[in-house]
Design goal:
Helix content: 25-40%
CATH topology of the largest domain: Glutamine Phosphoribosylpyrophosphate, subunit 1, domain 1
CATH class of the largest domain: Alpha Beta
CATH architecture of the largest domain: 4-Layer Sandwich
Structural class: alpha+beta
Radius of gyration: 22 Å
Strand content: 15-25%
Number of helices: 17
Number of strands: 23
Mean pLDDT: 92
Low-confidence stretches: 1-7, 323-328
Number of domains: 2
Length: 479
């Protein structure tokens, strides 16, 4: 799936800073480190002496701010930003965040990473009460709830509203006076606090974004918490105590950058351990281990280390091809893989190869990579997947919301092996994944969300329940 073209996509990334004289540029650098979380659009809103100004557009961050003047106009010592992949809502500029609202009594900008499971119901209720939506993103719902609240202060309005939205969310708001961050009661999405050398506080979706601006990690935002940052400093509050960790396991498997830490666990270390455990669970005789660039390289090195089989560079990535999304035809999907990856004939020819990947979604890419290796002369290709089979949709911020998209929901492991034309196929066990990541929260699966693999969702699905039940009956053909 490292090069799935493309059935599984990231959520989004948020970044904010308060107390830096060139805040918008700091946010730009922070978002650049989060670009892997969304490539459809980007935006930044700055606070210039209590006045909010923003710019947003479709495209990569560097494209949105290709004109230096667009960034230099965002003056002020505080700013928030967002890189987007559309988990809900289409790819129009109206859905690009942060959303900037200018009311008669205040200005607020809002950015969101995740997906609300009761958005449809809330939107219907709000529209019946006269609310007018400018986007079809579920992010806008929170602002309507805030304005509808009869609580006196913004903080109390926000707390009341956060208890009405359900699902996965990391929110970042900026007002004339402060930045406020909030995390859902299960902590599906990662969110961290850092501090720069000048004392400025930052909020980021991943810790890798703290490193690039020279910020020191302070702490993770915990489920149900509110973080308030203003001229007085940092304050931690909460909007609910009904919390239980269920961190998205796909963050560790694929989404997060390997140099990020989530809940104190380094992503590269977790992936390497997944590879080691995979080798322990499903060994096979071979001449070399290779990984699919880039997110599978850590797992491949762990597999090689445990098995004692040499790790080799058998696949090369074309660095200059932008990420492509789901292609409309099989031929185009396969061509997309060929543009992105090349097999190294001089390494794999005549050899028995263990190919390590992080997951299989549709299987299209897995089959094409196996074919690439065999066309380059590989004698055998044994496919090893450093996660359990993806069998169930996600409703918390990943764009898989039906089982018919997932090959493992429709076929057995043996049938998948035949489809992808591998000489053997094995997946990491659920317990192997849990143990490899190594969280120890007092919660099911040690604090991981494992719903993608076993259908055990940590929350009610609300608006998606009917869709989910229908998806259990769905069957589709692959290839």
């Amino acid at each position: 799936m490292s090069y799935e073209v493309r059935s599984l996509n990231e959520e989004c990334g948020v970044f904010g800073v308060w107390g830096h004289p060139d805040a918008a540029r700091v946010v730009y650098f922070g978002l650049h480190s989060l670009q892997h979380r969304g490539q459809e659009g980007a935006g930044i809103v700055s606070n210039d002496q209590g006045k909010l100004h923003g710019h947003r557009d479709l495209g990569l961050l560097s494209e949105v701010f290709s004109d230096e003047s667009k960034l230099s106009r965002l003056r002020g010592n505080a700013a928030v930003g967002h890189v987007r992949y559309a988990t809900a809502g289409n790819g129009s500029v109206d859905n690009i965040q942060p959303f900037l609202f200018k009311f008669y009594d205040c200005q607020i900008a809002l950015a969101h990473n995740g997906n609300l499971t009761n958005a449809k119901t809330l939107r219907k209720e709000l529209e019946k009460d006269g609310a007018i939506f400018h986007s079809n993103s579920d992010t806008e719902i929170l602002m309507h709830l805030i304005r509808k609240s009869r609580q006196v202060t913004l903080l109390d309005q926000l707390k009341e509203s956060l208890n009405q939205v359900k699902g996965g969310f990391a929110y970042l708001l900026i007002t004339e006076n402060e930045i406020i961050a909030a995390l859902d009661p299960n902590g599906f999405r990662p969110l961290s606090i850092g501090q720069m050398k000048n004392g400025a506080y930052v909020i980021a979706s991943e810790t890798c974004a703290l490193e690039v601006i020279g910020a020191e990690f302070v702490r993770d935002v915990q489920p149900g918490e509110l973080v308030i940052i203003n001229d007085e400093g940092l304050t931690i509050d909460s909007y609910t105590t009904d919390t239980q960790h269920a961190i998205c396991s796909m963050e560790y498997i694929y989404f997060a950058r390997p140099d990020s830490n989530i809940a104190g666990v380094n992503v590269h270390t977790a992936r390497k351990e997944m590879g080691r455990r995979l080798a322990e669970e499903s060994s096979v005789e071979a001449d070399m281990v290779i990984g699919v660039p880039n997110s599978s390289l850590s797992a491949a090195s762990g597999y090689a280390e445990f098995s004692g089989i040499p790790y080799e560079l058998g696949l090369v990535k074309n660095q200059y091809i932008a990420r492509t999304f789901i292609q409309p035809t099989q031929e185009l999907r396969e061509q997309g893989v060929r543009m992105k990856l090349s097999a190294v004939r001089g390494v794999v020819e005549g050899k028995r190869v263990i190919l390590v990947d992080d997951s299989i979604v549709r299987g299209t890419t897995s089959r094409r990579i196996v074919q690439l290796l065999k066309e380059a002369g590989a004698k055998e290709v044994h496919l090893r997947i450093a996660s359990p089979p993806l069998k169930y949709p996600c409703f918390y911020g990943i764009d898989i919301q039906t089982r018919k998209e997932l090959i493992a929901a429709n076929l057995t492991v043996d049938e998948i092996q035949v489809c992808v034309e591998a000489d053997s196929l094995a997946f990491l066990s659920e317990q192997g994944l849990i143990d490899s990541i190594g969280l120890n929260f007092d919660a099911p699966y040690n604090g991981l969300c494992m719903a993608y693999f076993n259908g055990d969702y940590p929350t009610p699905l609300y608006d998606y329940e009917e869709q989910y039940q229908a998806s259990l009956e769905e069957k589709t053909s692959f290839f």
